[in-house]
Amino acid sequence: MIGGCVRVVEFSKKKAQRYQGGVTLYVVVACMVAALGGSVFGYDIGISGGVTSMDPFLEKFFPAVYYRKHLQIFQDSAYCKYNNQGLVVFTSSLYVAGLVSTMGASNVTSKYGRKASIISGGISFLVGSALNASAMNLTMLISGRVMLGVGIGFANQAVPLYLSELAHPESRGGLNIMFQLFTTLGIFAANMVNYRAQKLKTWGWRLSWTLGLAAAPALLMTIGGIFLPETPNSLIERGHLEKGRAVLEKIRGTKNVEAEYGDMVDASETAKAHTHPFRNIFERRNRPQLVMAICMPMFQIMTGINSILFYAPVLFGSLGFGANASLYSSVMIGAVLAASTVLSIVTVDRLGRRALLLSGGIVMIICQFVVGIILALKFGEHKVLSKGFSALLVAAISLFVAAFGWSWGPLGWTIPSEIFPLETRSAGQAITVSVNLLFTFSIAQAFLSLLCIFRYGIFIFFSCWLCIMTTFVYFFLPETKGVPIDEMIFQWRNHWFWKQIVPGTDEELQNERVIDL
């Protein structure tokens, strides 16, 4: 059967039904505190674009760009006027630091627990924010960006794993998507802070790096991380069996946790036989998860969300909002993205991951084509968008952002964090974060140049990518809804395609576990 096997899904769900307890207030609060890492990630992404457009910031750190901007040394088309690689390199340094640090974060997460990485990420965020806000020269500024990147590497490595392991299988998708919801709220808050800060002529850019989500959630995440419970999976993996069971009983709200505890112990015993996670993850039996760890974050970035976000202020300006165009576009996109992410939280454990990804992919393909065609016909040299076409584009952009918010936005993080066996889980998440940051960095470096070269064709380019990823999901991604995180191997063993790479029946897999014990 294409997309997975009904029989094995039902088998896995029956195993999950043996797990007692459910979602407790304790788990929800713990997940919200941990998910604050997403808000700082979102804030750091959102704040850069606003700060690098503030004249006092440019004059102090990038004077050549400042004078070129105001003296208008060159004139170029509407597609090329923002093309400046110097500022792009500054912005992208955050992602390079995150990409490098996530590998080290993987070892910390595995050896010392998920909490240790969350706390380390929070401390790095605080140091980076302080350095950027007080920067007196370019060295301090870049150092601050590097520390923020380190924080992203640690937080993005640990938080999705923490949420997936703490949650009950029946609610794992919704709780995990809290990370994306907080990321969305962080981007929205950054846009609002930037809008107000740019009115403060001299020191507004410093305010952007200290107010709101730049420091407060990082502080809460750091202090809260001290009091968070460690996940039972991590405790059992590190040999603290009694403590792991106690935490499991507390987060499930029941003493009857024998079935789930037994599966965790089994997974831990299997993990102990594999002491080199980064080496093991490249073995044939882990090939499906490795493919997903690479493809899911890559596809998330290649949806073209950056191209849509880039043009939103331009379209609002065409509608007559003038100086407020940036504010209105930020409010619109932030509200739509947050609302659609909430929709994903509500529906992901009912409709499943595949349904949201397929529906979102189809909607985004249509929207990208609509935007590309209208811009090809109505926007460019000596052409100004009419209010009618601008309104149509705003509607298409809103629908695109909504589809991204319920599909690839959150699920690009959720699925990789729930599919790996315990022995390669930290390594798998490190690869996911690295690929995400690598492609974010690459798009940040290349987008303005691609926009200048392809012009309206950039939207057709991304729509082709959307066709590829939607087809990929239909054929190669099995449903993971309601499947216990330590029983996910059954999905690959019985998938129409992956079973050729990871052969074995359910009975054989059970026998392997008996041998391991």
Characteristics:
mainly alpha; 517 residues; disordered N terminus; single chain
Structure write-up:
The radius of gyration is 23 Å and the shape is globular. The model is unreliable at 1-9 and 511-517 (pLDDT under 50). It has helices at residues 6-17, 25-51, 55-61, 63-71, 85-112, 114-133, 138-166, 172-176, 178-197, 204-208, 216-227, 232-237, 241-252, 258-272, 277-280, 287-301, 305-321, 325-351, 353-378, 387-406, 408-418, 425-454, 457-476, 489-493, 506-516. With 517 residues, it is an all-alpha fold. It contains 25 helices and no strands. The longest helix is centred in the last third of the chain and has 30 residues, at 425-454.
**Overall pLDDT confidence:** 82
Proportion of residues in helical segments: over 70%
Order of helices and strands: HHHHHHHHHHHHHHHHHHHHHHHHH
Poorly predicted ranges: 1-9, 511-517
Fraction of residues in β-strands: under 5%
Q: How large, in whole angstroms, is the Cα Rg?
A: 23 Å
Biggest sheet architecture:
none
Structural class: mainly alpha
- Rounded to the nearest angstrom, the distance between the terminal CA atoms is 33 Å
Q: Tell me how many strands there are.
A: 0
Global shape:
globular
Counting DSSP H or I runs of 4 or more residues, the number of helices is 25
